[in-house]
Amino acid sequence: MTIFPLLHDWETSSWCVLAYATADSGLTAVLGVIPVEGNVHEPGDLFALAGRHGFIGEWKGSHEQRCGCWLACTGYSSRTVRKADTIDVPEVRWTVDMARGVDLDGPYYGHRRVFAGRISLDDQELMEQARALIRRAEPSPGA
């Protein structure tokens, strides 16, 4: 699992913490927001978040499939082009809820399906480390 902070709304400078994992031997990309208490700008629906980022034509298929491609790209990229505050955990038990998924029209970033929602980690210490990423990612007042 790869856990990373994401500036998801440039207009409001809103951050969240995302987690990216794979399932089904890598065929399914799983992305989830790690809930952070008090983060009023936390995105609810990751597919809607993806849709707000606009597509020029880099991916084909329905709007929902293109949103899935954006999510797969964001997750895959977080693992291959790491930010300084990224947390990589080879194995951790997790659950995802409030999720929806889409089958892609072809393989994108090694995935044929994308599933996105909210992720909870069984390891509470790791959950606290993940939540702390948002505090490090936000600019300090006056910066």
How many strand elements?
6
Strand order of the largest sheet: 4-1-2-3-6-5
- Terminal Cα separation, in Å? 31 Å
Give the % helix.
25-40%
Uncertain runs with pLDDT below 50, 5 residues or more?
none
Range of strand content: 35-45%
Main sheet record: 6 strands, mixed
The value of Rg in angstroms is 15 Å
Helix and strand element order: EEEHHEEEH
Q: Given the helix and strand composition, which structural class is it?
A: alpha+beta
Q: Indicate the overall shape.
A: globular
- Total number of helices: 3
Mean pLDDT: 87
Question: Helices and strands in order, then pairings?
Answer:
Blueprint: E1 2-9, E2 14-23, E3 28-33, H1 46-51, H2 63-80, E4 87-88, E5 94-108, E6 111-121, H3 124-137
Parallel strand pairs: 3-6
Antiparallel strand pairs: 1-2, 1-4, 2-3, 5-6
